[in-house]
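Worked example (supplementary).
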Amino acid sequence: MISSGKKISKEKGYGWTNIRIVGFGNKFRSDDGIGIRVIKELEKLEFFKDIEIIDGGTSGIDLVFWAKNCEKIIIIDAVDTGEKIGDVVNIKVDDIEEFVRKDYRSLSLHDLNLADVLKLIKALKINTSISIIGIKPKSIDFGDKLSPEVERKIPAIISEIKKETHK
Amino acid sequence: MAKNLNVKISPVSRVEGHGDLIINIKDKKVEQLTFRIPESPRFFEAMMVGRKYDEPSHIASRICGICSVAHTCASIKATEKALGIIPSPQTISLRKLVYHHENVQSNVLHVYFLAAPDFFGVGSVIPLVETHPEVVNIALRTKKMANDMIRIIGGRAVHPIRIVVGGFTKLPTEEEMVQMKEMLQGSYPDFEETLGVLKTLNIPDFERETEYISINDPVDYALYNGNIKSSDGWEIDDQNYLDKINEKIVQHSTSKHCWASRDAFMVGALARFNNNHDKLTDNAKRYAEELGLKAPCYNPFMNNIAQFVEIIHSVDDSIRLIDEILEEGIDKDKAMVDIIPRAGRGVGVVEAPRGLLIHDYTYNDRGRVEKANMIIPTGMNYANIEKDMDAMVPTVIDKSEDEIRLACEMLIRAYDPCISCSTHFLNVKLINK
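After joint prediction of all chains, the assembly is encoded as:
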């Protein structure tokens, strides 16, 4: 099978032998585009040059493929956490049931919702460590700009992602 | 069963999007039936205005995560027509090849992940991992294969970047073409196994004859290019779609309702099959026959079966296309053609997995969009879904509320609506009066 994966190793200074970062969202639905915007920022940074960064768009089920053959996957997405607008949450999905129980909702995916995809990953016994860096959006109306409350949190999101690249 | 029932299905699950279905039944008669889409679809048309000719296809690609290749290609075709650009035959062949795999990945998603749980009597794909692991594994393998095909040709599995106005920014290598052919050839055992499973499904026995509209090509089972053809006997050049396809605003939805020869029509895999079944590969025809799919078919639930038959056709035809491209040899000089901006109008019509997709752009002499119109397949199917509901609900009216709800949801799902293309979610609720 042809792979697009970027192999990295602990020798490069990360805590995992293979990391993928996936941004989800639609950049034409205001804050729903935060995941896509953040990965564009990551691509500019030297820190992430040995990590595979994926523009996941609004496709949900494909997360199953990205989670396979990978030790750590970090998802960036607009998530309705029920907290304040712009709040950044770092959700460890080691316990998928807890994620589902807390009723966190990804706002981005067009086919299966994120909780279903995570349940599917668990049912398929894919043992990747999954973290979701979520941000509570202000607006997911049509529009190509982030709201200021969300835009100003980009450095905080990147900081959380950096933490997740280490064990 | 109460003779009065107020059904509000909100949300309909396992569809790509979000909307509402409301049915009021009084004295065992349907008094009100509304399939309602709550959000505005017109933002993307406004986004196109003022954009340079190389931008709209990338914006269009973001309309949907499932049919991004379809929106990309419809957009490119509209722009190329408007600007008088004629891409190379190599470009057309590669677009047809990548297009097949948009259809495969989307049809796999719908048949196996979204519709199959209904037929196996489970709430979602998750329990199928335990009860039917072979089905889930086949689905994942086929989806991955189609994703890889799109990634190799388009540069990305979702929202491809190499497919542009005038051609391709980068071409696959001949070695990659051979690898793709091997992947395709390796998929057939999975389809044979799926055939055995699909034969056991109990497809609801419901029929309502309607008008079926698709594109049509003299040779191909048309997905990428062709005239617009109706089962009611007319065929028109795709540039003249407004001569036949009409839109009207309805009060209960922000998506317009469409009609052509009658008050509603159907687009999608079943419409394509009904209009173009004779151009399927012999292998795909055999699958159709074994699954009892015969044209003309008036059962909308058979849309799921038509989608599976199309997967076979797309794999067969992809192998043929790869052989053809390899025989010609991949020529980098044919990757792109020159583009000279000019004023003009162009219409791009393709078959998205869910049916006819139309992009219509008008450019000014600086090569910038002045006006854009898009008609999405789910929008074209809305009126027909309501007509089907009108006909079906009385046939299940003596069943339990849960059974009525499931029948309605299954019917909506059979159309594989991608409401996300224009809106966001879909809701369904059932309330007794």
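Two points are worth noting when inspecting this output. Helices of chain A lie at 34-43, 63-67, 96-101, 114-123, 148-151, 154-164. Chain A has a mean pLDDT of 83.
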